[in-house]
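Quick one: structure for this chain?
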Amino acid sequence: MVTIQELEIMERGLLAIKRAKELGRPILISEVHKMDTVNPLSFFNIGKEHFSGERFFWKDPKDETVLIGLGISKQIQSDQASDRFFHVEKEWETFLKDCLVFNPYKEVGVGPVMFGGFSFDPYKEKTDLWSKYADSLFHLPKYLLSIIDGQTFLTTNTICTPHEDPYLFKKVSEERNEILSSLQHKDHHKSASLLEMNEIEPEKWKETVDGVVKELTEGPLKKVVLARELRLVFDDQVAAERVLNNLYMQQHESFIFAFESNGDCFIGASPERLIKKIGNEVYSTCLAGSISRGNNEEEDVKLGQMLLNDQKNLIEHSFVVEMIKEALEESCQEIILPKKPQLMKIRDIQHLYTPVIGKCHQDASLMLLVERLHPTPALGGLPKEEAVVKIRQVEELDRGFYAAPLGWMDYKKNGEFAVSIRSGLIQGKEVSLFAGCGVVADSDSESEYLETSLKFKPMLRALGGN
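Got it. Here's what it folds into:
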């Protein structure tokens, strides 16, 4: 493992103090070093002792971008409902102004990168469930491990005040090298056993589905996505490290994420990209319509063909395709998408899937694209605004960050956000799991209930439940 020289950070630190004095305010100094290969799970795990509650983990389905953050150098948060996407982006831009970035590499996701997300609906009445997460919450980590297309980089982010003691940079150097040397240690995580599994008012949820179905046949709403909660109780503290490791092994073809805040950990394995922006290229995913996997290859193919020819699911999928296309058209000069959906097969479920590629205008904003796309009809409904209002009125659940945009943005305005489904919230010895389904005019509440049960499976397995 590389040991980073103390002299280098001391010299750069003195330069940062000088800059901070000239400006009369704190500034960021960020430096990047290329590393030997590092196991991303090990890097997350070693942060438990000194950075518990201040870690994040992100991996895309193809392992092109893996990001792990330890500590918090800067937190951007807001419970302001209006213009929250704009405010996060502006605060990030203001914070980056006059910062010192020592990054000789061209890879995206290296250097200053903020990670976080937004709540599903900032106007929904809050419960204690999500009290540790603001409606908009992003962290700039002290230490960021970026594995980009197989290459490994370590970014160190330090806030320097006008009257900073240069000794700070010696401490940073020592802490960083201690982290790197700790990577050789083996990881051991206690296993917690499941004691109770409590469905939160399933019969009332089915009644809500029936009530919405009736409204869909009589009013302007075409689709409403309703979610429910499963609350698990364990005999010991649930180790986020163990759950993350299980998701990494069991759901590797998904977006794997973990985001800690004040002791809680939001964690999951989502199959659904919301938006990715690299330079002027954007990528999105239309994912709606689902069926289970087969017990053998013949049954699996048969189920897949049923899904590809099922009118209810095809209509539901077309809603998503049309909405995403419209949302991107304002920012893109060119959009490419196939005429028919294909199948996305993951461990427990197969979905109708249509990839979208666009070439956006030079000034297109990633956060504006996130705002336009959230929530897609797959997570909210149609028409968009009316569906969200209906969810707000009838859904018992406080969704918090569930089904909302979660992801990262670097200092060059590249980034990626997933839709944080197939997820759970770890709170000590208890965990809440979330799952939803699209309710349309011919929906059956019992079938929708079974569909949500299927969607609980990935997180249940990762937690050690059935």
